[in-house]
Design brief:
By secondary structure, this protein is α/β, with parallel strands linked by helices. 32% of the residues lie in helices and 17% in strands. Helix 7 packs across helix 10 (274-291) and helix 9 crosses helix 10.
C-alpha cells in the first residue's frame, strides 16, 4: 500500500513506518512543520520517500493519513484529490481534547467518509466524533532494548516544548521534585529551562537509562511515547495519574498518583534503593513489551488500513 502522511510526531511515525508499505512524506526547503521530510534523529527505512508538493499529484496513493485539521486542505491542494472522497483517508488523532467537556467536538465529527483513529481509549472517550467511524490503535514502540543502569542518582524527565506547555506537561512541578534529587529535563526546547535537548534518539535513550528513575509529570496530554520508551528501557516510573497513565503503568512498575507527596516519597525511595528501582524497572519493561509492542501495533494498523481501503 502507498501511504501519504506528514511527518508530525517523530516517535510515533518511527513506529508506523516499520510496516511493509511505502510511505510518502512531504518535504519543503525549510523542513518546517508541513515539510519535515525524513527524520534526522531517528532511523527510518528506505521505503519512506520524501516528496515535494509539486510531485504529489503524480503519486499513486492508496491511503492518506491526516493528523492536523489543515491537512485536509493541504492534501486536496497537493494531491489534487479530496480526502475521503477521491482517496481513502484516516484522521489520526494524537491529542487529548482541549476546552470545555461539552464543547469537545472533533474537526472530523460526523464525516462518514473519513475514519478517525485515536491513540488511546481516553482520547476516544473524551472526543465527540459524532457519526464518524472510529477505532483505537494504542501506541507501539520500536524496542530500544533494556539499557537501565540507574548509575546516576538523578531523575529523568522527557518533555518537548516544556516552557510553552508548562502546566499541561507539568514542568512547573519540577522545582518541587528537585528537593528529592537533581532533575534532568530532556526534549525539544529543554535548554530554555536548563535542560538537555537535540540528542539523537539512541543517545537520548542511553542518557535517560543512566538515571535512577523516570518521572512523568504530565497533567493533560495523550499518553506520552517518552513514558513508554522509558519503560522499554527498564526504568521505574513515577507519574501523575492522569489521562491513560494508570492503564499503562501497573503497580509493580512504579507509583502513579495525583498526590504530590506520594510522588515525592516514591522518588526518594527509588533514589535511595537501587535494587528496588531495578526490580520495578524490569516490571515496567515487561508491561510495556506486553501492551505496547511493535508487532501488535503494526498488526492493528494493517487491519484498519485494509478495512478503510476496501
Amino acid at each position: 500500500m502507498n501511504i501519504f502522511l506528514w511527518h508530525v510526531h517523530g516517535s510515533w511515525t518511527t513506529s508506523f513506518v516499520q510496516g511493509p508499505h511505502t510511505y510518502y512524506v512531504p518535504v519543503l526547503p525549510d523542513h518546517g512543520a508541513d515539510g519535515r521530510g525524513r527524520a534526522r534523529t531517528w532511523n527510518w527505512p528506505d521505503r519512506v520517500v520524501e516528496i515535494k508538493p509539486e510531485q504529489a499529484s503524480q503519486l499513486d496513493v492508496d491511503m492518506v493519513v491526516l493528523q492536523r485539521p489543515h491537512e485536509l486542505d493541504l492534501a486536496h491542494e497537493w494531491l489534487g484529490r479530496r480526502p475521503g472522497h477521491d482517496v481513502p483517508t484516516i484522521y489520526l488523532e494524537h491529542n487529548a481534547p482541549q476546552g470545555r467537556v461539552n464543547d469537545l467536538r472533533h474537526p472530523i465529527a460526523d464525516r462518514r467518509d473519513i475514519h478517525v483513529v485515536h491513540v488511546t481509549h481516553f482520547n476516544a472517550l473524551f472526543w465527540d466524533t459524532g457519526a464518524a467511524p472510529t477505532s483505537v490503535i494504542e501506541h507501539g514502540v520500536v524496542d530500544p532494548g533494556f539499557r537501565f543502569t540507574g548509575e546516576l542518582e538523578r531523575i529523568a524527565v522527557v518533555v518537548n516544548e516544556a516552557r510553552r506547555r508548562g502546566r499541561v506537561t507539568g514542568t512547573d512541578l519540577l522545582p518541587r521534585f528537585t528537593r528529592v534529587a537533581p532533575v534532568d529535563l530532556f526534549g525539544m526546547d529543554a535548554a530554555a529551562l536548563g535542560g538537555i535537548e537535540d540528542l539523537p534518539q539512541d543517545r537520548l535513550h542511553d542518557e535517560v537509562a543512566r538515571r535512577r528513575v523516570y518521572l512523568h509529570p504530565v497533567r493533560w496530554t495523550s499518553l506520552g511515547l517518552s513514558l513508554l520508551e522509558a519503560m522499554h528501557l527498564g526504568l521505574p516510573v513515577v507519574a501523575l495519574a492522569t489521562t491513560e497513565v494508570s492503564a499503562a503503568v501497573p503497580p509493580e512498575a512504579g507509583v502513579v498518583s495525583n498526590r504530590i507527596d506520594d510522588l515525592e516519597f516514591a522518588l526518594r525511595r527509588f533514589i535511595a534503593e537501587p535494587e528496588e528501582a531495578a526490580l520495578a524497572g524490569k516490571a515496567a519493561r515487561a508491561a510495556a513489551l506486553s501492551r505496547y509492542g511493535l508487532d501488535r501495533f503494526l498488526t492493528d494498523w494493517d487491519r484498519v488500513l485494509t478495512e478503510v481501503a476496501a
